[in-house]
Predict the structure.
Amino acid sequence: MTLDQYRSRINSSIWKGFAQSGVDLSQFPAEKQSLLANAISDQVLLAINDLMDDMPGQAASQASIPDMQDKETILWKGKPFLSLVESYIITNERIRITTGLLGKEIENYELIRIQDMEVSQNLSERVIKIGDVHITGADPSSPQVTLRNVPDPNGVYELLRKAWLAARKKYGLLFREEM
């Protein structure tokens, strides 16, 4: 289910709750009523996401990039907004995408294979400060990877970009652009 579908279902429940509560909202203009319902649904979605973060094994954290040494270091852990079955780990060597609730599938994407990255956010994602980080690279098994609905996508992008540049430098890969 997409974020807009979750939001729509919660909005529907909020309007149903208004109707069942017997509270008279007629003194407020329709646009103010909609703003109130949307604000409540956004806060409910954020609260649900925070509750899911508190579940064992679901914690998200962010760290600064340490000196790139020979050992692999976790730089960032996260998961898509409102997801129980998918998580992401960015290290100084790779991106690890884990999917599945009972059975687990783990996909590793080496940082040195990345060729391009971009961030995208629609309006509702901007409101609750989530977005997608799209990665294109030279990995034959999956040339495109998307980190979906991550919190602070611009921060994740910058962290990933710095780690990518450090990994390329570590392995002696240089940039050459054709003019």
